């Protein structure tokens, strides 16, 4: 016989008891233990049972909840819908779904859209609450209507300034503060106005909607021409051509949350397009040339991809402090091909991908021999691309430099016989 549902998680708004249903009030009244933040507990001065304040993390409090729920009814108070970026999921994971009853209120996001008069069945939701802002703009690229959960570090004014810095200005904004409370306030802003605002309360939801009529998300597969990037001159710029870039990105097998190293990033074209394919991941663009570093940073800002970190330094030394990659792209080696490939294969996650682009016969030979020395057989593609170019009233073909693309997977360890 299954145990009773001894834990209730009750959603509550800034208006406290006023909007609670009879079912929610019953769960609170029947509890011997009431758990919540100080703000939530203050709504119930008449409660005479045990109180547990949630602060400085909730792991220890949940351990107490599990122990107390063996013999007592426990009620946990949470903001809005406890299963929407709330504590509800953690409680269920800790206690077990069969022992937990969740009684939600309208979420802060639902209230925000209602107060702003905006339909929200086509909206996306992003949380910057307790999370870094890096990658926020990259995720925005495919969205037209967004609700953003903020915190003191990633407050609406700071978010707007971050968007403006990267040239992503095509948005209307609403800031919805203290939703459901006596001090509720909803205001519309331009991004410039929002970046300058200094009177926004910490309890807020930020809504963003695109201004541009007829806006469409970018193509699912990036294929930007080299002219879309600033690059070093002469020789038409040191940049991976788009046809090569496309096959190299495919060979890297990038996932939405991948961590990628782009070694010898140059203008940053591979790093930028990889970042768009991994909006929840991170890309490290390693470049040794000072001019190239600045150009790469300019391109990152111009393309509004904020999950790319440009690392100034020479590989493999510059790789030492970087997080473990899921994929490594080598577009330039500055004479250190052997060491770069060796470090990349050592640091890659198991099952991770290494892709090396080689223009010269010497680099191709070295890449092949280093990979083979590590006991691996690369897949090699010789790519020869010719593009149409005008000739008077006609079109002719102009050949680009042939590129050899080496790709290999770091193998999983082979288990021996038991």
UniProtKB/TrEMBL annotation:
Superkingdom of source: Bacteria
Pathway: Cofactor biosynthesis; adenosylcobalamin biosynthesis
EC id: 2.1.1.132
Family matches, as InterPro entries: 4pyrrol_Mease (IPR000878), 4pyrrol_Methylase_sf (IPR035996), 4pyrrole_Mease_sub1 (IPR014777), 4pyrrole_Mease_sub2 (IPR014776), CbiE (IPR012818), Cbl_synth_CobL (IPR006365), Cbl_synth_MTase_CbiT (IPR014008), Cobalamin_biosynth_MTase (IPR050714)
Coiled-coil ranges from the UniProt annotation: none
Domain Tetrapyrrole methylase per the UniProt entry, residue ranges: 7-195
Example of a GO MF term: precorrin-6Y C5,15-methyltransferase (decarboxylating) activity
GO biological process: cobalamin biosynthetic process; methylation
Keywords from the UniProt entry: Cobalamin biosynthesis, Methyltransferase, S-adenosyl-L-methionine, Transferase
Protein name: Precorrin-6Y C(5,15)-methyltransferase (Decarboxylating)
Encoding gene (name): cobL
């Amino acid at each position: 016989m299954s145990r009773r549902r001894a834990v209730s998680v009750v959603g509550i708004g800034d208006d406290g008891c006023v909007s609670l249903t009879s079912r929610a009030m019953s769960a609170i009244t029947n509890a011997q233990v009431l758990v919540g933040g100080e703000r939530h507990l203050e709504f119930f001065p008449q409660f005479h049972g045990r109180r547990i304040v949630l602060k400085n993390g909730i792991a220890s409090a949940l351990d107490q909840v599990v122990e107390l729920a063996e013999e007592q009814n426990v009620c946990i108070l949470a903001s809005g819908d406890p299963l929407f970026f709330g504590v509800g999921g953690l409680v269920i994971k800790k206690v077990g779904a069969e022992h937990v009853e969740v009684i939600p209120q309208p979420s802060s996001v639902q209230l925000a859209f209602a107060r702003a008069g905006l339909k929200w069945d086509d909206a996306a939701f992003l949380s910057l609450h307790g999370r870094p802002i890096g990658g926020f703009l990259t995720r925005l690229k495919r969205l037209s209507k967004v609700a953003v959960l903020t915190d003191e570090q990633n407050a609406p004014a700071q978010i707007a300034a971050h968007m403006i810095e990267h040239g992503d200005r095509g948005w209307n904004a609403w800031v919805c503060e203290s939703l459901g409370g006596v001090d509720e306030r909803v205001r519309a802003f331009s991004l410039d106005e929002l970046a300058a605002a200094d009177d926004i309360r910490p309890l807020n939801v930020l809504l963003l909607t695109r201004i541009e009529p007829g806006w469409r998300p970018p193509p699912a597969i990036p294929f930007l021409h080299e002219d879309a990037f600033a690059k070093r001159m002469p020789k038409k710029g040191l940049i991976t051509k788009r046809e090569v870039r496309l096959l190299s990105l495919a060979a890297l097998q990038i996932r939405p949350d991948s961590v990628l190293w782009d070694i010898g990033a140059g203008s940053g074209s591979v790093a930028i397009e990889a970042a768009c394919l991994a909006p929840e991941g991170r890309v490290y663009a390693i470049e040794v040339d000072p001019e190239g570093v600045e150009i790469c940073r300019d391109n990152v800002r111009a393309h509004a991809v904020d999950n790319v970190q440009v690392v100034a330094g020479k590989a493999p030394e510059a790789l030492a402090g970087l997080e473990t990659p899921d994929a490594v792209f080598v577009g330039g080696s500055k004479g250190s091909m052997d060491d770069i490939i060796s470090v990349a294969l050592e640091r890659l996650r198991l099952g991770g991908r290494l892709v090396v682009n080689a223009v010269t016969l010497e680099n191709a030979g070295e890449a092949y021999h280093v990979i083979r020395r590590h006991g691996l057989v690369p897949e090699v593609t010789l790519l020869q691309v010719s593009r149409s170019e005008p000739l008077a009233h006609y079109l002719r073909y102009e050949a680009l430099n042939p590129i050899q693309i080496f790709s290999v997977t770091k193998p999983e360890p082979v288990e021996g016989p038991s």
